[in-house]
UniProtKB/TrEMBL annotation:
Residues 426-439 have a biased composition (Low complexity). Residues 57-301 form the Aminoglycoside phosphotransferase domain. This is APH-domain-containing protein. It comes from Trichocladium antarcticum. Residues 440-449 have a biased composition (Gly residues). Residues 329-340 have a biased composition (Basic residues). It comes from the Eukaryota. Pfam families: APH (PF01636). Residues 324-346, 426-465 are annotated as: Disordered.
């Protein structure tokens, strides 16, 4: 199969189409394709974590080619198009789906870029495309957000959490998205799909040694636990982003508030806890040994970073907002209505904990334990996929090897979290309801304890004996998060699951794969 050809866009044809359909975008246009920044290895990323959004807005490893348009009047826009060529998957790279959810959310209090138009006529620039607003703000690649003061860091995280809760409290029917995904059974489908993917990946043999990649540690027990619907979080379906994390948000240039959520490629109707557990990932991977794993950021250990809210503060704020009724806002809400100050954010984080009743807290903690264990398992499966690609020599870098090797400690960690979840009756608080967490006031965030104490339960995770910990092996500048997709290895981002389903003829209902 030939390599992907970069198709130049015929600017005259595009300008003619825009003049007819979106006259407010003034032609002639200046156009430039934006390449995603190359992914840094641990320790070598840019000192300035907040770029102006010129470059960062175009994301890591996006599979849909993205262009910046500058109109005759100087206004900037973003064009996203389907890649050229025959796609393995009909549903990956669905720019139509991205456009649909961004346009639908414009009527809500969820901050999204304004969507201007969708063109499904492939004759204009070769493939379908849509045009949206360019958001001029800050994007933080490092979710520790080292460049800001503690109060500002706390307020930024609080608004990210608030923004996610606003998305989850929307009734898909109220914005015409009831057909956007299946309303029930999200985690059951995920378990079946990932079981089949892992079986397929485990069977891949190294082209030279003929050794199989092999199953993840504790794979059978993990699957047995996750497939038990009595253990799963209560089934519910909301709009989910699919890869919600700090660096997929654009923040106001000076204020600690989200002005837009980017990268909707993975969005669907699914279980809301999958998004919140994804946001919390760096708090969990911080416990891993940085010599054995990847993206271990010690700054997420308890009290290691001033102003960083604890996992418990995040979940309690999230639930307090998600349970509020959805306001009936009109268009362009997020440019005008009141936004909380840094002080308000700190008070909100504290108040949320006060309203967190013991009964609902126990259920929520149990559900969060399950969701986070599944999230860590999913990361181990993605790393196993990288190991499988390396076995077939589709990926051969040192970085690929490190990610592939990380499957083992991640799977061990997922198993430790499962054991903790099973043992908690009543549930143990590894998302601790800590008495000290809100005592830090506006900026302290409970961080005045000085050095981290790995035995402390405050906002922490069980220290399982199988998880090697070495506080001296800190890697302060490590890349912080494991992205949802191994896109830094040239894998088309949204098509990771889909490609495996098709390549191995996976049926989601049974989870059986034929290779």
């Amino acid at each position: 199969m030939a390599g992907r050809v970069r198709q130049p866009i015929d600017l005259r044809v595009l300008e003619k189409w825009i003049s007819k359909h979106v006259p407010e975008i003034e032609v002639p246009l200046d156009i430039k394709q934006v390449r995603p920044p190359s992914v840094a290895l641990p320790g070598d990323h840019d000192q300035h974590d907040a770029h102006l959004a010129d470059h960062a807005q175009f994301g890591f490893g996006q599979s849909n080619p993205t262009y910046q348009l500058t109109a005759a009047d100087g206004k900037r826009y973003v064009l996203r198009k389907k890649p050229p060529g025959q796609l393995v998957s009909k549903t990956a790279h669905k720019v139509e789906r991205e456009y649909r959810i961004i346009a639908a959310l414009a009527k809500t209090d969820v901050p999204v870029p304004r969507a201007y138009c969708l063109c499904e006529d492939a004759s204009v620039i070769g493939t379908p495309f849509y045009i949206m607003e360019f958001l001029d703000g800050r994007i933080f690649e490092d979710p520790i957000i080292p460049s800001v003061l503690p109060d500002h860091r706390r307020a930024i995280w609080a608004d990210a959490v608030r923004t996610l809760a606003k998305l989850h409290r929307i009734d898909p029917r109220s914005v015409g998205l009831e057909e956007f995904g299946k309303p029930t059974g999200f985690y059951t489908r995920q378990v079946n799909t990932w079981r089949a993917i892992c079986d397929a990946q485990a069977a891949v043999r190294d082209v030279e040694t003929r050794d199989a990649v092999g199953p993840l540690p504790h794979f059978a027990q993990l699957m047995h636990f996750f497939a038990d619907e009595s253990q799963q979080p209560a089934d519910r379906g909301t709009l989910i982003h699919g890869d919600f994390k700090i660096d997929n948000l654009v923040f106001h240039k000076t204020e600690p508030r989200v002005i837009g959520i980017l990268d909707w490629e993975m969005s669907t109707i699914g279980h809301p806890l999958s998004d919140i557990s994804n946001l919390l990932t760096p708090y969990f991977t911080a416990r891993l040994d940085p010599r054995r794993s990847v993206n271990v950021h010690r700054g997420f250990l308890p009290r290691a970073t001033r102003g960083l809210p604890t996992p418990d503060e995040i979940t309690t704020l999230y639930f307090s907002v998600v349970e509020q009724p959805t306001p009936h806002n009109n268009h362009h809400h997020h440019h005008h209505h009141h936004h909380p100050s840094q002080q308000t954010a700190a008070v909100e984080l504290s108040l949320a904990a006060d309203h967190h009743t013991a009964a609902s807290g126990a259920d929520r903690r149990r559900e969060m334990q399950w969701a986070q264990a599944f999230n860590i398992f999913r990361l181990s499966a993605i790393c196993q996929g990288i190991a499988a690609r390396q076995a077939g020599r589709q990926a051969s870098s040192e970085q690929a090897r490190r990610y592939g090797d990380a499957r083992t400690p991640l799977a061990e960690f997922a198993w430790a979290l499962v054991q903790s979840a099973r043992a908690s009756s009543p549930p143990s608080s590894y998302l601790a309801s800590s008495s000290s967490s809100s005592s830090g006031g506006a900026g302290g965030g409970g961080n005045q304890g000085g050095e981290e104490d790995s035995s402390s339960p405050t906002g922490s995770i069980p220290c399982h004996s199988k998880i090697p910990q070495d506080p001296h092996a800190a890697c302060p500048n490590a890349r912080v998060y494991l992205p949802l997709n191994p896109c830094f290895l040239d894998y088309p981002a949204a098509s990771y699951l889909q490609t495996w389903r098709i390549r191995h003829k996976i049926t989601t209902s049974t989870g059986k794969a034929t290779i």
